[in-house]
Amino acid sequence: MIKDLIKKELARQKKVINLIPSENYPSKDVLRALGSQLTSKYAEGKSHQRYYFGNKVVDEIEDEVSNLVYKVFKISPKNWGVNVQPYSGSIANLAVYLGVLDLGDRVLAMSLEQGGHLSHGHKVNWTGKFFEFQHYGVGRDGFINYEEILVIAQKFKPKLIVCGATAYPRIIDFKRFREIADSVPSTGSGRAGALMMADISHIAGLIAGGVHPSPFPYADVVTTTTQKTLRGPRGAMIISRKDLSDKIDKAIFPGLQGGPHLNVLGAMGVALEEALKPSFKNYAEQVVKNAKVLAEELKSLGFKIVTGGTDNHLILVDVAPLGLTGKQAGEKLEEAGVIVNKNMIPFDQRKPWDPSGIRLGTPAVTTRGAKEKEMIRIAKTISQILK
Ligand SMILES: Cc1ncc(COP(=O)(O)O)c(C=O)c1O
User: Fold this and answer.
1) Pocket-forming residues, ligand 1, beta carbon under 6 Å
2) CB within 8 A of 88, min separation 6: which ones?
3) Averaged confidence pLDDT in the chain
4) Quick one: how far is CA 230 from the chain centroid?
5) 283-386 CATH fold
6) Residue 187: pLDDT band by 50, 70, 90 thresholds?
7) Is residue 372 among the annotated active site residues?
């Protein structure tokens, strides 16, 4: 029975060391909200503009969740609109493109191979089929090369520049992206400058905790999932400049979605309340400290770390010097109870299904209480298993 399989999965989760950077363990309160009666209600439309009746309490919930977003990211409702209804990060990104662009418009984003996400215009993703994407990557040193992006942007003249990544271990300079977006020359039809979207899915919790610079006020639109470093339920949100939010709201509903998943919305609110507590700041600080120690220790054990270290919660390890592929390394680690994901490394000669790297992260183990001492043990364990 499914009930038994859920218990089995819980037992697995308790037994392993989870180093997947996009996973986390939400609190019992978040889980309770997810499993609450909110799941029974339908509430198509935005707060106070519903197609169903019986939504007075739900309106209060959605309003409060939006207020919490403003508080967590220290922004004003005067300048920013919030949509907390997206079912996932991919849908949120698509909604932004559909909301602010015309089909076929040009977008510049990071390539999947060098750290971006599928929903940043990969050719197998609908985002890449609906719009004309060009991709930037990183330099040979693994760092984003802003000068190169500037040159590409000048030539390509995108209407939108996307920054934010799924596998980038360094600080993202949002101010620099704003400058690049502002410098895009006119296409001839009078429009100069590009819109800028920051997908902060991976680092939202670090931004909330004050250990990564904020994309506000530089970005025009910010998207994020809520289940990663933010430690909420699986969901997403879009925060956009006031003059763009109407179009983006319409792209979510009725454009792409039906009724919001209200249990997720409630759970998101609980997670945001938690993110406002001083203990969350300590958590975010510890996530980064742990990642730095893990990277340093792995380096001292002879591992090749992309960019030589990390500024955030994740680490990319090139396992080719060990004579392993990312898939082989991931499998060996799983057998021993350490869970990672295989990942392309910049300029990888191999394919995504069996790339040259693995991606490690500290959000989940930090939630379980791991500190620097445990990270050193984990690094040694990884070394023993892979060597
Ligand atoms: C940067 C980034 N954007 C978007 C997403 C998509 O989120 P979801 O899996 O909720 O669609 C992810 C998920 O890994 C991500 O890392």
Assistant:
1) 22, 88-90, 93, 117, 119, 164-166, 199, 201-202, 225, 236
2) 225, 234, 235, 236
3) 97
4) 9
5) Aspartate Aminotransferase, domain 1 (3.90.1150)
6) confident
7) no
Pair type for strands 338-339 and 17-18: parallel
One-letter identity of residue 283: Y
Question: The CATH number of 28-275 is which of 3.30.70.1050, 3.10.280.10, 3.40.640.10, 2.60.40.1180?
Answer: 3.40.640.10
Q: What tens digit of pLDDT does each residue of 194-223 get? A: 999 999 999 999 999 999 999 999 999 999
42 is catalytic: yes
Q: What is the residue extent of each domain of the chain?
A: 28-275, 283-386
User: What single letter denotes the amino acid at residue 142?
Assistant: G
Residues 94 and 117: beta-carbon distance below 8 Å:
no
pTM over 0.70: yes
Q: Quick: pLDDT tens for 280-335.
A: 999 999 999 999 999 999 999 999 999 999 999 999 999 999 999 999 999 999 99
Q: How far is the CA of 222 from the centre of ligand 1 (A)?
A: 13
Distance 237 CA to ligand 1 centre (A): 11
Q: How far is the CA of 176 from the centre of ligand 1 (A)?
A: 23
Question: Which residue puts its alpha carbon closest to atom 16 of ligand 1?
Answer: 166
